[in-house]
Structures are given as C-alpha cells and as structure tokens.
Recover the amino acids of this structure.
C-alpha cells in the first residue's frame, strides 16, 4: 500500500511538472529575431575591418541593450557551406531568454556562402505562425539576394498571409543596386530601411529599432487585460518640488470630453472607472490669472490595475542678472514640433524659473525678452526623463555698456557671419528699458548690430564676438 501511494505521488508530480508551461502566464511583450548575413562577402572590409567582425562587435552591444522583457532569436545564412542556397540555420529559436547563448552563436559565425535573403525570412516567419504578437525581424545584409528571383514579392506574400511580423533591413556597406533591393524588402515587410557603413552607423541603426521595440514594451505593460473590477487607478508622480508650479490636474473622459475630476493635488493616485482619459496639467500663474492648461496625452485605465504617469522635470538655473530682462519662458516640444507651454509674466516672476513637471521627451527653451512679441529660442535638445530633474544652466550672456547719449533705439545679436538672428532688443517708447540690461545668450560667436534714433537700418558694431560659458560679456559699442 505504501509503495502504491508513493507511485501515485510521483505520477501526480510528473503531471504537474508537464503542465507548468501551459499554466505559466503568457507574456505580451514583443520579441526580436536577428537575421545575420554570414555569406562570403562579409569577409570584405569596411574602414579596414572585416565586416563580420564589425557585425559581431555591434551585436555584442545591441543585444544586451534591448529591454529586459524582450525575448530574442537568431538566424544566419551562408555560414556553413559555399554555393548552397539552402544554407539557412535557426541558431536560436524565437522566444529565447538566453542572450549570452545567442551572442556565443554570433561569435562562432564564419562567412562562406551565398545570400538567400528570401529563404532566411521565410524560414523565420514559419516559426512565427503561432505567435499572437507581432515579432520584429532585423535583417542585416551586405549584399543582394543570390538565390531567389523575386525576394520582394515573397516577403509581400508572407505579410499578406497574416503572419504577424515587421521586417527592418540594415544595408551594411552596400552599393546602389543592393540598397534598392533591400529597401524593397523593408517596404514589403512594413518596416524601415537603414544604411550603415561602419560600426557606429550599424549600432545607430540597431538602436533606432531598439527605441521602437522599447515603445512596444511600454505599451504591452499598460495593455488592457480582462479586469476583475471596473474600477482602476491613475497614478501621477513627478520629481520632488516640481509640483509647486502646478495649480492642479484635470482628468477628462476621452469618449465625450466630460470633466471627471479636477484637483489641486496633481501627484498621487486617482481612482477611476475603466476607460480612456485625457490628462491636463494646470500650470499656475500669478496674480489670480487662469492656469495654463496643457494636455499630456490620453491614458487607459484598466479595472483592477494602476496606470502610471511618471513625469520628469526641468529646472532653469539662471545666473544674476540675466533673469531681469526675462518676461516669459517658452518650452517647445521638439518631437511634436509644437509649443508645449508659454509662461508670460512681466509683473510677478514667482513661477518664472521654478521647476516644472514635464512628460518624457526632448524640448527647446526660449525666453521672452523685455516687450518682444515672441520668445527667442536659446537652448535646444533638452532631454526630460521620467522621475528625473533636468537642469538647464543659463550662465552666459551679453550686456551693452551704457551710453545714453548715443540714443540707441534697438540692437540685435546674430550668429557670426549669417543673418540668423538670436534676438532683437528694442527700447520702450517712453524710456530706454531694457536696452542696457544683461541678455542671456548661449556660448558662441556672434555679430552685434545697433540702430540709433533716425536710422532706418541696423549697423554692425561688433563682428565675431565670443561669448563664453559662465560669463556675461560687457560690450562697448563705441557710440
């Protein structure tokens, strides 16, 4: 009896172990499959280095750089036999978590044979038929198809068959004929074509694809799943002290634009019914003026789950006395190519240079100087990252030495040797403000122009003026 019980227990354990894979939670994260060219031409050199060595070096950087949630696969062609169009090998099946093993396979590749592009993609796609999520295939090739008459049409038919994949193609040191064919493959696979000529450009191409994959990972994290409850949560967080520039947050239901909630406390968790919502940050203004409303996007709240909005922040560290002339701060969203926020206040500068919470992205910073009609963009490519405060230091500028007798009406600063204007400063009708104030200007080389009373045009009074970081240049016009 005792032996029978033991046998029964062992059998139950075996059944449970065999059932584990099917019981495991399915992941919705994207997968990436690399198809590497290991044909004989990869022994050719780019910049004096064998292309296969460059590819191995770049893969050693690109693969570990993928988001940790992404599973990978590896296919290579032309590495086992010469003259064999069937020389395509699945080295690592799609869905693998063994990145070290994948890179070990890459290191062992030794170019030998032909370039069966269509066959390599077709064999890869064959393994993706059962996958519900779209797989990103990255094909790296240094030449054209040598085995198939019409590879583009073959890829097009694969897409039309319903297999979920997107094909990006990197042309590594290819001629115009090769570029044209590889572009066709990428287009047929609904992906992008990238040109690479050395290690840096090859890595840059793979990094661009990595950014796309990372977006898919973030989307998968917030993907709607079957909810146990209709009530979910929206959690808004931002770096310390940045919330002081907010008058609050407004949450609007997307389907009918109905305001669901508005509160002065933007940070924290907001319980909401499952659905899509627009979130607006309300940036505070002084002297009881209405807050500036800026939409930061549309978010889906899922029942029983928490959707997180993790903002970054911008701190403007401006040196004295460069801030005295600033009457407005403009932030431009470089990615969307549009204005994000304009804070104008010529009477009370309480919020002017305080830390502001911002969504993740790249921004330009401009200042409205004096009574100018529009801000002047002074700083570009400011990166804002979730949970971090980015500091933009403004510690350089220029100031004209005061010369009231010259009756200066306006002056402007342009990039040296060009008509590209940084800003123009004009006096008020009743006094000379702000002609003699210090003006913020990024480090660089500039030309200075002045207009005096009665003049129609600006006259150059300074050429090749150097403004260095950390200094406010005092300039004597000689007038």
């Amino acid at each position: 009896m005792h032996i029978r019980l033991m046998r029964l227990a062992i059998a139950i354990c075996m059944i449970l172990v065999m059932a584990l894979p099917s019981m495991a939670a399915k992941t919705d994260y994207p997968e990436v499959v690399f198809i590497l060219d290991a044909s004989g031409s990869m022994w050719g050199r780019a910049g004096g280095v064998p292309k296969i060595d460059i590819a191995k070096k770049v893969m050693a950087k690109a693969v570990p750089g993928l988001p940790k949630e992404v599973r990978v696969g590896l296919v290579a062609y032309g590495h086992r036999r010469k003259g064999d169009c069937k020389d395509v090998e699945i080295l690592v099946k799609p869905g693998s978590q063994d990145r070290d093993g994948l890179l070990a396979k890459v290191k062992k590749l030794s170019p030998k044979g032909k370039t069966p592009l269509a066959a390599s993609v077709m064999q890869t796609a064959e393994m993706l038929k059962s996958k519900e999520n779209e797989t990103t295939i990255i094909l790296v090739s240094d030449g054209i198809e040598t085995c198939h008459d019409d590879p583009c049409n073959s890829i097009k038919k694969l897409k039309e068959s319903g297999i979920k994949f997107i094909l990006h193609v990197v042309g590594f040191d290819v001629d115009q004929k090769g570029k044209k064919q590889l572009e066709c493959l990428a287009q047929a696979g609904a992906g992008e074509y990238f040109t690479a000529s050395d290690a840096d450009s090859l890595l840059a191409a793979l990094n661009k694809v990595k950014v796309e994959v990372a977006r898919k990972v973030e989307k998968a994290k917030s993907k709607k799943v079957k909810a146990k409850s209709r009530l979910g949560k929206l959690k808004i967080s931002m770096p310390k002290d940045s919330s002081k520039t907010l008058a609050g947050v407004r949450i609007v239901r997307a389907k009918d634009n109905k305001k669901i909630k508005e509160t002065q406390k933007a940070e924290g968790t907001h319980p909401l019914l499952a659905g899509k919502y627009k979130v607006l940050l309300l940036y505070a203004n002084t002297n009881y003026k209405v807050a500036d409303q800026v939409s930061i996007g549309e978010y889906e709240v899922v029942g029983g789950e928490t959707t997180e909005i993790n903002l970054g922040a911008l701190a403007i560290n401006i040196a004295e006395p460069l801030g005295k002339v600033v009457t407005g701060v403009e932030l431009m969203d470089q990615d969307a190519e549009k204005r994000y926020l304009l804070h104008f206040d010529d009477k009370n500068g309480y919020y002017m240079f305080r830390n502001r919470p911002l969504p993740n992205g790249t921004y330009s910073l401009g200042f409205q100087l004096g009574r100018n009609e529009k801000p002047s963009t002074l700083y570009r490519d400011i990166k804002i990252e979730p949970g971090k405060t980015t500091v933009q230091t403004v510690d350089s500028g220029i100031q004209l030495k005061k010369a009231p007798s010259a009756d200066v009406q306006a002056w402007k600063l342009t990039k040296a040797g060009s008509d590209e204007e940084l800003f123009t400063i004009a006096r008020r009708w009743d006094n000379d403000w702000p002609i003699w104030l210090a003006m913020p200007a990024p480090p660089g080389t500039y030309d200075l122009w002045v207009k005096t009373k009665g003049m129609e045009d600006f006259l150059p009074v300074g050429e090749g003026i150097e403004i260095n970081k950390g200094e406010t240049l005092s300039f004597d016009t000689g007038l």
